[in-house]
Amino acid sequence: MKPVIALVGRPNVGKSTLFNRLTKTRDAIVADFAGLTRDRHYGNGKLGDHEYIVIDTGGFEPDALSGIYKEMAKQTRQAVAEADVVIFVVDARAGVSSQDHDIAKYLRKLGKPTLLTANKAEGMIEGGQFTDFYELGLGEVLPVSAAHGQGMRLLVDMSLELL
Ligand code: GDP
Ligand code: MG
């Protein structure tokens, strides 16, 4: 069985861009689940010697009570349940948000292996200061740039090392 990696984070941090980087093709397998507003997207990936499955998710609001956000939270929870490891994506440029704290709290409680990743870090990776993200209580943060394809090998290596 290939390991399953779920990409989780608030909207607009670059999860789908990362998904496209980590999967060879852009035509992800789309899984339809009755009643869900947004589908989860599955893709096959291979980087170096590693083969894996990636699940993209919509933006996650753990305490969303209604509407589309509730559905997105539900499908994200399902994706996380299916995953062997979670990549929690935050925005290196925007810094820590209250939504990030909510998601971090959920992931800490869950106890599933989680790698904290600060995306959009192009031009910041060398000597960048990412220590603010330590307050999320998930340990080290790995800076990457999905848009520029920086840090991808390390991201996959470190994620799969958590297994
Ligand atoms: P999602 O909502 O988390 O899936 O985020 P998207 O993948 O849709 O990306 C949201 C926005 O961030 C888009 O405008 C992307 O082009 C931009 N983005 C994604 N990755 C990067 C990155 O590495 N660097 C920069 N500067 N922008 C990025
Ligand atoms: Mg997306």
Describe the structure.
The protein has four helices and seven strands, in the order E-H-E-E-E-H-E-H-E-E-H. The chain is an alpha/beta fold. It has one domain: 3-Layer(aba) Sandwich (Rossmann fold). The protein has a seven-stranded mixed sheet with strand order 2-3-4-1-5-6-7, sandwiched between helices. A hairpin with an 8-residue loop joins strand 2 and strand 3. The chain starts with a strand and ends with a helix. About 7% of the residues have low confidence. The site of magnesium ion (MG) has 2 residues, from helix 1. Belongs to the TRAFAC class TrmE-Era-EngA-EngB-Septin-like GTPase superfamily. EngA (Der) GTPase family. Keywords: GTP-binding, Nucleotide-binding, Repeat, Ribosome biogenesis. GTPase that plays an essential role in the late steps of ribosome biogenesis.
Distinct compounds present:
guanosine-5'-diphosphate, magnesium ion
Q: Rounded to an integer, what's the Rg over CA atoms?
A: 15 Å
State the fourth-level CATH superfamily. P-loop containing nucleotide triphosphate hydrolases
Helix count from the secondary structure assignment: 4
Give me the strand/helix succession. EHEEEHEHEEH
Morphology = globular
Within the largest sheet, what's the order of strands? Answer: 2-3-4-1-5-6-7
Strand tally is 7
Provide the structure class. Answer: alpha/beta
CATH topology: Rossmann fold
Residue-averaged pLDDT, rounded? 85
As a percent range, the share of helical residues equals: 25-40%
The CATH architecture would be 3-Layer(aba) Sandwich
Count of discrete domains: 1
N-to-C span: 13 Å
Low-confidence stretches: 27-38
The biggest sheet amounts to: 7 strands, mixed
Beta-strand fraction estimate: 15-25%
Organism: Polaromonas vacuolata
Domain EngA-type G: 3-163
Function: GTPase that plays an essential role in the late steps of ribosome biogenesis.
Family: Belongs to the TRAFAC class TrmE-Era-EngA-EngB-Septin-like GTPase superfamily. EngA (Der) GTPase family.
